[in-house]
Each structure stands twice: as structure tokens, then as C-alpha cells.
Amino acid sequence: MKLTNIKMGIALLLVMTLLSCSKDDGNGPDPIEVLGIPFASTASNITDTSFQANWVLVAKTDGYLLDVSTNSSFSTFVAEFNALSVTGNTFVITGLSPATSYYYRVRAKRGVEVSNNSNIIAVTTTGIVAEDPTFLKVKANALANPFFVGVAVKSQQLSTGSAYDVVLKNEFSSLTAEYEMKMNPISTGSGSYNWVAADKIVKYGNDNGINVHGHALVWHNAVPNWLTNFSGTNAEFTMEVKKYITDVVTRYAGKVKSWDVVNEAVNDNDGGLRNTIFLQKMGPNYIKDCFQWARDAANAAGDTNLLLFYNDYATSTNINKQNKVYTIVEDLMANNLIDGVGFQMHNTYLSPTKIQMETDINRAVVKGLKIHVSELDIQVNQNNDITYLTEERNLAQKAKYLEIVKIYNALPAANKYALTVWGFKDNESWIPYSTDLNHPGNDWPLLYDKDFKLKSAHTGFLEGLN
Ligand code: XIL
Fold first, then answer.
1. What is the pairing mode between strands 211-214 and 258-263?
2. What is the CATH number of the domain that holds 60?
3. CA atoms of 266 and 235, how far apart (whole Å)
4. Residue that finishes a domain, picked among 98, 124, 150
5. Which domain holds residue 110?
6. How far apart (Å, rounded) are the C-alpha atoms in residues 426 and 234?
7. Which of 375, 421, 436 to mutate to test ligand 1, by most ligand atoms within 8 A of the CB atom?
8. DSSP 273
9. Nearest atom, ligand 1, residue 429 CA
10. Which InterPro entries does the record match to this protein (predicted)?
11. Does the beta carbon of 276 sit less than 6 angstroms from any atom of ligand 1?
């Protein structure tokens, strides 16, 4: 037994000696090391159009292959960045688009050998997406069945060379006075008028080949104090309203293409007539009377083409109200007094739905009436849950603008008239300041920001015309 153990020990020693001799004989080359896979680290120096890609160096390489893509599966590559050969452990990628997501990865190389891909790093460039600068009316006028693209204006905006003036002439083919052609500012007493602002607005439109829509002859929220406090009989009150309508329509005959004759005559609750001073003093036929006086005045002044509109809000979501509006419209049609319906469309990014708007508008379409989307704006903060225009709301608003423009553009040619946006810049919109809307504070409902920069909403409008 003892002898056998000694023999085995000697044999083991021999094998170990042989093995140690073969491991390094001092003459052969080093064994080939496996090429390491690089580890990509986060991007740095991110700008609107560039960023620096970074990674950890791998030992014994002679360079790296860099891929940059706009998708994480690298199915396409940013030009030049498809296995671009680089050295070092950083590389600045330039010529990119603002506010865009990119992905990068690297491989190590040594001679013809290439490692597997590193991990993938996502990076988004700073800045804002450039909006399509095409002018709204240019695109609308090129349609098979064009229509007016309108905007609500204030007379003080209309001085030549102002930003409003430039945008208006470039982008819009129609205008509506935001308040200066209502009864309150024009009518200063029985038979006395202040025409200064209204004249300026109408002349601006006429001089510049921009359609002028008149808004509004009779509206309960724009009754001048002297008429609110009128102490005469109901018949005398009625004569005052008739005289006002006649004088205004006569003055602008041939200069104003269309008028909202009566605005918001239906209440929000049960779909009855709104309990206004006009209803109280003139009785339930007052709407028809006002249309008749407007028509008579236009005809007497030689304008037989004046378009008369009934204008109201929230009819797409409030079905009682919608039904009542169409009862009024049918009554006016039976007397040959109405040409079109104005849908204000002070909407939100959630409401009304596409189908609600289409259903509502279609009731006027089948009657052969002109359609005016008359006061479009789209709130994004109706619940006061954001403090700045977030990207998510911005895009939701864009989609909602696109939707309504598409609905409008799909109307038959004979029903098209105008689609009017209620103001220029977000910060001057009536929306954030309206106590009626009950969401005082921030909102961004229009097509331009406070610096007159195009918003995504504007691009949405354009895309609605595709
Ligand atoms: C608003 C204007 O935007 C405000 O500037 C003005 O002070 C009040 O009226 N429905 C209408 C519009 O028909 O005339 C209203 O315009 C908005 C609601």
C-alpha cells in the first residue's frame, strides 16, 4: 500500500510539472482576449439640435461603431449614424431636430472583429417642435370647396403694420368684431350712435378684401344702459329695437356680408326661450320680428344678398337647447328670413365629441342652411388642473382643432360659409377672464401664444384641411 502511494505521488508531480511547462514556455504569443461590449452612459450637453453620446472605454480596442436612431429598435438610422466609426469615449451628434427623441448604442471593434451592441440610451433634444408656417387662408382657398377662415378682432388691433394686422392679412379671409359691433358700444341713446370703432372694423375688412361678418344685432348681454332702464311702453321699446336694427343694417348694407341677428335666445336649462329683456318687452315673436326688420332694411338699402344668421352656443351637447334652436330656425325658414346658423363652439379639448358636433350641424345642413362655426376656441384647463400648457394638453388641443376643421371642411359646398376663431393670442382670449365660464386663471384656447408664435393648434387647423 505504502509503495503504491509513493508511486502515485511521483506520477502526480510529473504531470503538474509538465502542465506548468506547457502554460508558458516564454516563446509563444499571448492568447486572444475576448473583445468587451461597451457600456453606454447617459447623454450630455443636450441642445435643440445636438447632444453628446458617452460610453465607457473597452480595453484593447481600436475604435467604436456608433448608431443613432429615432426609434429604439434601430430599424432606421439618423443619416451618417449607421455604424459610424469613431474613437475615444464621446461623440457629439449634430444636425438634429428640436424636441425629438433619439436613441444611441455603440459596438467596440478591433481589426475586423466587432463586439455586440451596448445598452441603448434614449435622449430628447430640447426646444419646441417647429409648426407648419403655411397661412390658413392660403390652404383654405386652395380647397376644392373653399370657405372663409375668420378671426374675431378689436378695432385697436387694426393699425397698419401691427402684428395683428400682419397676421390678419396673411392668414384670415373673414373677420368678426369681438364686441365693437354689438348694441352696447354702438347705441348711446335713442337714435344716437357711436360708429367710430364699428366703422373702422368694417372699412378695414372692405379695404383689404376681407369678408365682414356682423355680430350681433340683438344680444341680452350687450344691452346699453339707457335701454335696460327704458321707461316707455313695450311698444315704444319695440320701436327702439326696430330703429336700432334698421339703422345699423342700413349703414353697413353692401359692406357687411352677414349678420348674427339674434344671439343666444335659448336658455340652458329646459330649452325654453331665455328670459331676456327682449322676450319680456316684445313677446315671443321678437326673434322673427328682428329678422324681418334686418331683411327689410337690407332690401330697402339695395342689398338683397345679406345673409342672416341665428347664433348660439352649447347646442351640440345640450339637446333641449339644440331642439329649441331648430324650432326657431324652422319658424324663421317658414318665413323665408334665415340664411344660416352660427355655432359658437366655445369648446374644450374633451367636448363636444365629433359625433355630437356632426349631428348638431347636420340638422342645419339638411335644411340647406349656411353653417358658420362662429366663435371657435378650445379650452385646455376647464378644470383648473394645470398651470402651464403641458405637451399632453397641447397635443390634445391640436387634435381637437384638427377634428372640427375636418368636420367643417367635409360639409357640402353649398353649406359652407366661414369658420371663425375667437381671437388671436391666448393671453388676450376672453376665456380665462370670463366669470360665466367659472374657471378664472390660466387657459390657452387659441392658435397663437402670447408672443404670436404659432401653436400646435394652428398646425392642427391646417391638418384638418388635408
Ligand atoms: C365676448 C367677447 O369675447 C368679450 O371680449 C366681451 O367682453 C364679451 O363678449 N358669446 C358671444 C360673444 O356671442 O359675443 C362673446 O364675446 C362670447 C360668448
1. parallel
2. 2.60.40.10
3. 23
4. 124
5. 39-124
6. 42
7. 375
8. B
9. 3
10. FN3_dom (IPR003961), FN3_sf (IPR036116), GH (IPR017853), GH10 (IPR044846), GH10_AS (IPR031158), GH10_dom (IPR001000), Ig-like_fold (IPR013783)
11. no
Residue 64 and residue 80: Cα distance in Å, rounded?
14
Nearest Cα neighbor of 340 from 397, 396, 258 is 258
Measured from the CB, is residue 211 less than 6 Å from ligand 1?
no
pLDDT at 23 (0 to 100): 43
The yes-or-no answer on residue 375 being catalytic is yes
Q: Are 120 and 140 in the same domain? A: no
Paired residues of 124 in beta bridges: 101
Sign of CA dihedral 110, 111, 114, 120: positive
Specify the pTM: 0.78
| 87 shares its domain with 161 | no
Ligand 1 centroid to residue 212 C-alpha, Å: 17
Calculate the alpha carbon distances from 411 to 349, 361, 407 in Å.
22, 9, 7
364 and 425 Cβ atoms separated by less than 8 Å: no
Cell 353649406, located at residue: 415
3-class secondary-structure state, position 133: coil
DSSP one-letter code for 285:
T
Q: Compute the average pLDDT of residues 267-283.
A: 96
| 223 and 268, same domain (yes or no) | yes
Residues 336, 406: one domain?
yes
CA of residue 433 to ligand 1 center, whole Å: 11
Q: How far apart are CA 50 and CA 295, in angstroms?
A: 63
The C-alpha R_g of the chain, in whole angstroms, comes to 36
Angstrom distance (rounded) from CA 131 to CA 402? 14
In the chain, the N- to C-terminal Cα span, in Å, equals: 99
Number of domains in the chain: 2
For residues 434 and 372, the model is more confident at: 372
* C-alpha–C-alpha distance, residues 434 and 364, integer Å: 29
Q: What is the mean pLDDT of the chain?
A: 93
- Count of residues making up the chain: 466
Residue 12 above 50 pLDDT? no
As a whole number of angstroms, the distance between CA 149 and CA 134 comes to 13
- Integer Cα distance of 447 and 435 in angstroms: 22
Count the neighbouring beta carbons within 10 Å of the beta carbon of residue 133: 10
